[in-house]
Design a protein that fits this description.
Bound molecules: fe (ii) ion
Largest sheet: none
Number of domains: 1
Number of helices: 8
CATH topology: Four Helix Bundle (Hemerythrin (Met), subunit A)
Radius of gyration: 19 Å
Number of strands: 0
Strand content: under 5%
Structural class: mainly alpha
Order of helices and strands: HHHHHHHH
Distance between the termini: 28 Å
Length: about 240
């Protein structure tokens, strides 16, 4: 998190909780729309908001798989201690114990694997559930008919994805971000967060960073701005 210098993130990866904060804002808003929807026009509006949320989360998860979990997995630094070998995937509590031991503790490969498996499984589940909600919305819009019952079901699904997303963010910040902090140097992290925030393949490469910025308060916006200066100024970026 922020160090003595309140305008600077200590590690570039500390921008992750800020990005997740932006996701929480869009999730809360969208869920509220779902809870209040009653007409076909409301569903159309909800579909727009949901579409934006899906676009952001799918990009976020895909880039994380590519530039964050991928390199950590491939790196497989040799770890010394810890012999626990249980299949920990999904057992967040046990994973947390290892992480709590701090950087010096080292993580058994099995624990690292469990953290990655969890990240991977949650990304897949999120993707499936988001597509289910999209399909339900499209169905209503296609039928051009909306009932209190269908709205209740849509609302409950939106609540479901929101909770899944919150759980995922919590796990990712506790496990994966800790590994990144310990194992990826500043330049590597700057490359990673730049990819998460700037989409060079898009017509508007700033569609993510501008949105994140718009969801944050002034103090967090200053941290984001400082980080942008840091990654734009980073000279050596891995290809
Ligand atoms: Fe994330
Ligand atoms: Fe993630």
């Amino acid at each position: 998190m922020a160090t003595e210098n309140m305008n600077r993130l200590e590690d570039p990866i500390d921008v992750m909780p800020l990005m997740h904060k932006a996701f929480r804002a869009v999730s809360d808003r969208t869920e509220e729309m779902a809870s209040k929807a009653s007409t076909l026009e409301d569903i159309e509006e909800l579909n727009q908001a949901f579409g934006f949320w899906v676009k952001q989360i799918l990009y976020h998860a895909t880039v994380e798989d590519e530039v964050m979990t991928g390199p950590l997995k491939d790196g497989q630094p040799v770890r010394d201690n810890e012999t626990e070998h249980a299949d920990l995937a999904g057992k967040a509590g046990e994973l947390a114990e290892f992480i709590a031991k701090g950087p010096g503790a080292g993580l058994a490969e099995s624990v690292r694997d469990a953290a990655f498996t969890l990240e991977d499984e949650q990304h897949k589940e999120l993707e499936d559930r988001f597509h289910e909600v999209e399909a339900a919305l499209h169905q209503v819009l296609g039928d051009k008919k909306v009932t209190a019952r269908t709205i209740r079901h849509i609302h409950s699904r939106v609540m479901g994805v929101r909770i899944l997303e919150l759980d995922h963010f919590e796990n990712e910040e506790a496990f994966v971000c800790s590994l990144v902090r310990d194992e990826i140097d500043e330049a590597g992290q700057l490359y990673m967060v730049r990819r998460l925030l700037i989409d060079d393949s898009a017509e508007d490469p700033r569609w993510i960073i501008d949105w994140v910025h718009s969801e944050l308060d002034e103090a967090d916006q200053a941290l984001l701005k400082d980080l942008e200066v840091r990654f734009e100024g980073a000279v050596a970026q891995p290809a």
